[in-house]
Amino acid sequence: MFGSKRPTGDDELTLSRRQHGNSHDSSHAYTYHDSFVNNGSHISIPSWHSLSLHRIRRIISHRPSFLWWGIVCCVLTFLLLRMPSSTPPSKSRRNQILFTHDLVEYQDTTQMTDYALLDRLLKNEQGDNSRWRVQFNRQERTPNWIANGKDRGSDTYSRQLLHHRVRGHSSYELEKLGEGARLRFVDEHARTVPVTAIIYYSSNGQLHTQIESILGQSVVPEALWIVCTPSVQADVKSKTVAFKNNKRVKIMVWDPIEWLQVALRVSTEYLWIIDQDIQPGKRYLERLLRLSMTDEYRHAFLGTQAVVFKQQHLNAPLQCIVDVVENGSFPSKSQSIDMITDLWLFKRSWLSAVSVDPSMQKQLDPRLFGYSVSRSLRLHADIPSIVIPTETLGQDYQIKRLLGGTKATDAKSSLCSVIESYLGETRKAGLAWRESIAAPGIKSYAISTKSPVMFVFDGLDHKEQFVHLACQFQRIGLADVHIITTGEQRGLSAMAFLKSLQQNHPECAEGVNVHDLDAGFSSMDTSLFLKQATHGFTQILSLIQPRVIIYLDRNSVTKRSIQVAADMTKVTAIGLPPRDIKHASWMASLPAESLASWNDFSIKLAIVTDRKPYALARLIRSAARAHYFGDKVDMAIVMEQSCDRVTQAFVNGLPWPHGNKDLRHRITKVNRMPVYVEAWYPADDHEYGIVLDDSVELSEMFYVWAKYAILRYRYGQDMPDDAKALFGISLYSPHVIESDPEGRQLFEPSLALISNGYDSESPYLMQAANSFGGAVYFPEHWREFHDFITARVTDINKKQLQNVTVPNTRSSQWVNSWRRYMDELIYMRAYVMLYPNFENYVSLSTSHLELSSHVISEYAQAAELLRVPLMTSQKPLQHQLPGNQLPTWYSLPVLDLWGNVDRMESLRERGLALQRSVSSCTPLGLKEHLNDPSDLLCPSKKLVPIPVTSEDDPVPDFATRVVTVFVDSEATPDPQAAAAEDDDAQNNNNNNNNEEDEDNNDDEVNNDQS
Questions:
Q1: How far apart are CA 692 and CA 871, in angstroms?
Q2: Cα(342)–Cα(304) distance, integer angstroms
Q3: Backbone torsions φ then ψ of 320, nearest 5 degrees
Q4: 3-class DSSP state for residue 207?
Q5: Does 292 or 64 have the greater pLDDT score?
Q6: What does the pLDDT read at residue 799?
Q7: Structure confidence at residue 244 (pLDDT)
Q8: Residue 6 region, left (φ>0) first, then alpha (ψ -120 to 50), else beta?
Q9: Which DSSP symbol is given to 84?
Q10: DSSP 3-state of 843
Q11: Which of 386, 385, 380 is nearest to 350 (CA)?
Q12: Closest CA to 57 of 70, 47, 49, 67
């Protein structure tokens, strides 16, 4: 192979053709090998001049797909070049202004621009022959300044200055800050900055001088627009003849002048609007631009002329404190103000915050321009207005009011009158709350010493259902009532509501404050309304700072926005279902501080059942019909070991729409005491439990009574320390007293109350637990009861160190009843339970004595005494109470264990006497024991012999629970020394016994303390 002759060019060509045969690549092979021979080397590059036209035709004829791919590439290249560019428009295309994404309010990065809103904003300029053609960049989403939050920082210097948390800068400090800022130029050689200056010209102004001062700035605006009406167009042209050939200057004619429509057409980064007859100094624009690029003032609306508003009260005249140009009364440091006047420099991207304000879309007085801009930026972008000092600087940094223009003193008077007139209109429309947010010196409602409570009316149906509750709050007068309507587009404006209120409830109309949210979007625009309503609710809640906000609980966008706003402002939100509003008028009798705890606690139902599916179904049906005010109420069902399959199948498929359902099944049959006591244990100090037997039936008003009583006596602001003795709220009005030693006795509480000067139907406190119809138990007292009964049962079954007997009660004889131990605890602690006392023993629950047919005939009378009538929902609960409300704590009658009217002091004295007789520990008061029963479980020293059959038998390990170690308040001897003394005494008594007896004695426990 190495000795073979290298082929010639012809041989090589022949070889190539043979190898490729009929292949279409022969032409390529020929070209390649020809170049190979010509170059004389193994690596060669084909020469392009060899590709003749003839060869190109042969390539196309053999490979026509090349032609089609070439055509496609050319078309794609042409389309790519024709696509719109995102670069700023050139100077030659000034008639075509780019209107990009940052001029509208967006929801988030997943939602499209509301182009219908943009079309409305630019309604007059969308025609085909329009001079100012607008382009929408519809492929954009949320603007960067909103998405990344740069202009919404919550801890910027300007916002700290707004809330007076930092000190402002002097002129010298501002000069140093500005020197570090770097200006952005459109044309650095001509010192042109991305600013569009706008002059609003009305009449008789020195327009020529203004234009000269603007074009003569140390940094020149990119464009200068002169906006006027057709009536003064000729005057404007005559005064701008000298600038006819200046491409920066343009005249825009509007009738009438809508400044927002003009501003939206600006394509530069900044807008600089100059009032008529105001001449800025030569370096005025440069100074403001530099400061606006600093970190301190990047998020502020800057100016050198400002107004601060002050108003003593709602009906007082408005005071305008103006920085007067003539006398130079300027602030010495930068500070937050209410309004910028005369000249306004702000970012073009801020127009999105201004354009969403519904009031800005209306035709306003031109004198309100500065107020409107400052207000909208503060409301919708949280951008404060900051005035910067100029008093120590030269004329180049200040402004001058031209001769022939309005004087500053006249401007002050005119401005105040216009703004005061505008505020009067906003108050009538219920929109003055926005003015108070933008300018805290403006009063939008009468200040009251009462805590505010707020109601939300979202449409006409809310007015019909809700107005009586709001007027009930106003009539009782414990709170300052504020009402919010969601706006005319939602069906109810503040003006319409107030007019209806004045016609139907004139007294109520005089005492409430009505505000209009004016969300500005219809109910069909769900996402837009959610954002706008949440923003509005947050602002008005921050302004008024109510303790609670009450609304109609429906699955609507208004509900979600209220909940979000309330969570952000830490205000308690109370949503009432429509069917429960009638039974919520008792809320007006509670202070706002108590209502603020509405969502702080929960009530849980615990039901104990055993082989009574019909009774269980009756109980659950009655519980499901109750009025829960939209609260989440969990239910636990505890089934005995002997529970039948019918009951198990029923509870397994049972729906419970008011909360979670928890099923438990016991595996061992025991007496009823542990089943009842273990049915519920509180998860925290704000979980309340209602333990029920399946023989109970509930009233649909039971939760109303429980919620009302808990808020009144557990979360009331005026509750004394004695109220800690309340351990529960009974749902049942007992007709029988069980604690009498002679047996069950009829109980007539009204007779005892009347004889002691109380109302016959007043609720009362009684030193007894309800064992029939169920009760609400308080968490800390129930935990204390668990600890107490655990120690007592163990002691009775084992050591029997304590003998606790409540005097003159039958419960001391009940071995397997939880009532025995509950009576011991509440007697020694002087605890009491609140009992209802309505007419004819009407109760919130009743008990059905479930006995067999051959037994019920003997106890028919007893069963009738236990069954009491249930309260219905036909009449509100509070209307059945004396004075239409629950009495104060000290106004409640107190009854002892036997149903006799007594005093809390007497109960405490009797309890302390029993405690000292059974426990060696020092008794603790309500503030001291902290619901720990340890001081009740201190038996005296006692020898407890424990017999054993053999010396090898271990001493039994008793299960008595040791809660803590108790020591007397006086000096206590050393336990080891005491034990040694006992051992010595024992050894002396047994010194004659043999060693075996001594070993047995060692196995005895001589001393035992629990």
A1: 18
A2: 9
A3: -110, 115
A4: helix
A5: 292
A6: 80
A7: 86
A8: beta
A9: P
A10: strand
A11: 380
A12: 67
Torsion of CA 14, 20, 25, 26, to 10 degrees: 20
HSE (side-chain half, CA atoms, 13 Å) at 536: 28
Q: Give dist(CA 234, CA 225) in Å, integer.
A: 16
Query: pLDDT averaged over the chain?
Result: 79
Rounded distance between C-alpha atoms, residue 164 and residue 153, angstroms: 17
CA-based nearest residue to 552, from 469, 611, 476: 469
Q: Poorest-confidence range of 169-178, 526-535, 662-671?
A: 526-535
Rounded CA separation 493/520 (Å)? 11
Most confidently modeled range among 97-101, 424-428, 965-969: 424-428
Cα–Cα distance list, 704 to 586, 603, 627, 773 (Å)? 9, 12, 7, 16
Tokens of 231: 């009536």
**Cα–Cα distance, 390 to 398 (Å, whole number):** 6
Cis, bond preceding 256 (omega within 30 deg of 0) = yes
Pick from 583, 453, 451: nearest CA to 880: 583
Q: Crossing angle, helix 65-82 and helix 53-62, to 10 degrees?
A: 100
- 196: tokens are 């569009």
Beta strand 696-698 with 764-766: parallel, antiparallel or unpaired?
A: unpaired
Above 80 in pLDDT, residue 974? no
Q: Judge contact between 882 and 762, C-beta under 8 A.
A: yes
Write the DSSP string, 849-861. Answer: ----HHHHTTTHH
Tokens 């199948």 -> residue: 649
110, 102, 106: which is closest to 136 by C-alpha? 102
For 673, other C-beta atoms within 10 Å of its C-beta total 18
Does the predicted model carry a pTM greater than 0.85?
A: no
H-state helical runs in 83-143: 115-121
Torsion angles phi and psi, residue 85, rounded to 5: -90, 150
d(CA 768, CA 758): 20
* Cβ contact 687:660 at 8 Å: no
Token pair 């007085």: residue: 365
* Selection from 498, 686, 728, 474 nearest residue 599 by Cα: 686
Q: Above 50 in pLDDT, residue 218?
A: yes
Neighbours of 276 (CB within 10 A): 19
Q: At 148, give phi and psi (nearest 5°).
A: -95, 0
Dist CA 999 CA 972 (whole Å): 30
Highest mean pLDDT among 415-419, 582-586, 713-717: 582-586
Confirm if 150 and 143 have CB atoms less than 8 A apart.
Answer: no
DSSP string, 867-905: --PBPPSSS-GGGGSGGGSPPPGGGS-EE-TTS-EE-HH
Place of tokens 């800025």: 280
